[in-house]
Amino acid sequence: MINYHISFKKPHRHFVDFEFSAKTNGANSMKFQLSSWRPGRYELADFAQNIQKWGAFDEKNNPLPFKKITKDLWEVNSNSAREVTIVYNFYANQLDAGACYLDEHQLYLNPVHCIFYIVDRIQEVYKLNLDLPKDYKIASSMHQEKNTLTVKGYDLLAESPIICSNSLQHADYKVNGITFHIWFQGMCNPNWKKLKKDFTAFTKSQIKHFGGFPVDEYHFFFQITPYRSYHGVEHTKNTVLLLGPGNEIMNKKYEDLLGVCSHELYHTWNIKAIRPIEMFPYNYTKENYFRTGFVAEGVTTYMGDLMLYNSNVFDWNQFVKTQNQNLERHLMNYGRYNLSVADSGFDNWLDGYKLGSPNRKTSIYPDAALCMLMVDLQIIRNSNGKYSLHSVMKELYEEFALKEKGYYEDDFRNICVKFGGLKVAEIFESHIYGTEDYIDNLKSALDIVGLMLEDKINPNLSAQYFGFVSAKENGEIIIKKVEPNSITDQNGIAPDDKITKINDKKIDGNLSDIFKDCKKEVTLTVKKKFSEKSISLSIGNHYQLLEIIKNINATDEQLTLRKVWCNN
What's the distance, CA 395 to chain centroid? Predict the structure, then answer.
């Protein structure tokens, strides 16, 4: 057993104090590993950079010699000790859905960031004793007795976040005898009746489609902020959702809340239970390269929204809005012509989730979700409504997850083609593994259920008029994206250039409001690293968008298959 004592003294400094002890079992040396990344985020994070102090002691509190072997692996000379105690602190000042945070109001830990495992002893039981203020409560999916949490094995510990505070709000609901907990940390006023009703509906739908649930209980942990935020992270028995502002979560932000919760719950099957062979088991010390991000995130993005619709939590307008958001993100990213969805997922380990080199790659979220929409509809057409993407995922669950083995890339493709035929094979080759334009195949797929694509005016006026997207950073307008061959591109304006004036006037307000008054052209003063000049741009029609709408002349066959798709 590994015993941890976790405490803090001055929470405003954001340092958490850790002390953990373990028997040496006669070993002359012991290696202590901290993770380099966390499951659900496919990029290296190097959590060890947050450790300020680290020391090793024997059972008599005598210092033990140690050395650092890699950036996050320590080796202790335990030759003379029966027990080793490691003492260290960790800087917890990152409030998102997957990190650690300490202040005067809460202690929030994702153990994968800050808790070690002993090499070759990863399956040992962990016992965590939390030294907390008397009025604090603990939200966790680990076994709890007062302020002590227990869990078997590092894999489950790594996926068991902890929130401790005196302001936690809690309720639960049951589906199929399984208890689902909802926790809120932060200032908000949850409408528990509405939450329970909607959560029960989409939870029932997801369990019905898989025929079972992978774990015996589940927790939704909300970190509610007073500012705008949106982030979710999946775990084996729980998820953490960062959302804000708190006064909008039951109105303006409620669709976002439902969307991220349905998405993360679907992950309980897809990536937590149904895992690619490359992550079976996880290797916490280095990149876990895999090309099936289009399954892990593409299927989940698409299915999370579809489940809200077929459980009647979302109406048609709310659901099609999510699909049109995916389509807009796809059309606004010219990386779709340079790197496939499969290769882009692989390369998350190279450049993470940032913009990086302009138009270099596509996304395993919206782009892969559109691919899964096409696959789903083609399966429905090919089987005359007998099968769908639900059938594919259920087979993956039964043949791989329940048999405790990982799936290969070809396993997913072959099951999809088995149900969907040659048209599905074409989608894989052209869009998942290739960089061909989506639109013709998307139109063909949507036509199966009486839907069509219609031109849509880009609401971002700088994108529509001139072909650039900007952001305000530290009071400056920074160019972030430029459409290739747009009027902006043709005039030598590029990402990271700054717009300092418009029509020779300092910028007062947002660009869209300013551009509303422009008639035929506008003069931008653009500052580069070594020069500044004024450039006149003529108004055009750039970053052209499409949106999905219903065909009012849909046939009876199309309407029948639409009903299968929406209510399946």
Answer: 24
Under the banding of pLDDT at 50, 70 and 90, the label for residue 139 is very high
Mind listing the pLDDT tens digit for each residue in 278-327? 999 999 999 999 999 999 999 999 999 999 999 999 999 999 999 999 99
Count Cα neighbours of 225 within 13 Å in the Cβ-side half-sphere.
14
Task: Please measure the distance between the N-terminal and C-terminal CA atoms of the chain and give it in whole angstroms.
Answer: 47
Using CA atoms, how far apart are residues 282 and 278, in angstroms rounded to an integer? 8
User: Which of 38, 365, 353, 97 has its CA nearest to residue 229?
Assistant: 97
Considering the domain delimited by 171-451, tell me its CATH architecture. Orthogonal Bundle (1.10)
Per-residue pLDDT band for 352 (boundaries 50, 70, 90) equals confident
pTM of the model: 0.97
Count the neighbouring beta carbons within 10 Å of the beta carbon of residue 94: 14
Give the residue extent of every domain in the chain.
2-165, 171-451, 461-538
Structural contact between residues 568 and 479, judged by C-beta atoms closer than 8 angstroms: no
For domain 461-538, give the CATH superfamily. Answer: PDZ domain (2.30.42.10)
Are 48 and 71 in contact by the 8 Å Cβ rule? The answer is: yes
Could you say which DSSP state residue 528 is in?
-
The model's pLDDT over 353-372, given as tens digits with 9 standing for 90+, comes to 887 899 999 999 999 999 99
Segments in 226-337 forming alpha helices (H): 254-266, 293, 300-310, 316-331
Query: Looking at this protein, which amino acid is placed at residue 273?
Result: A
* Distances from the Cα of 95 to the Cα of 8, 91, 163, angstroms: 17, 12, 12
Question: What is the C-alpha radius of gyration for the chain, rounded to an integer number of angstroms?
Answer: 26
With both helix axes pointing from N to C terminus, report the angle between 300-310 and 556-567 in degrees, rounded to the nearest 10.
100
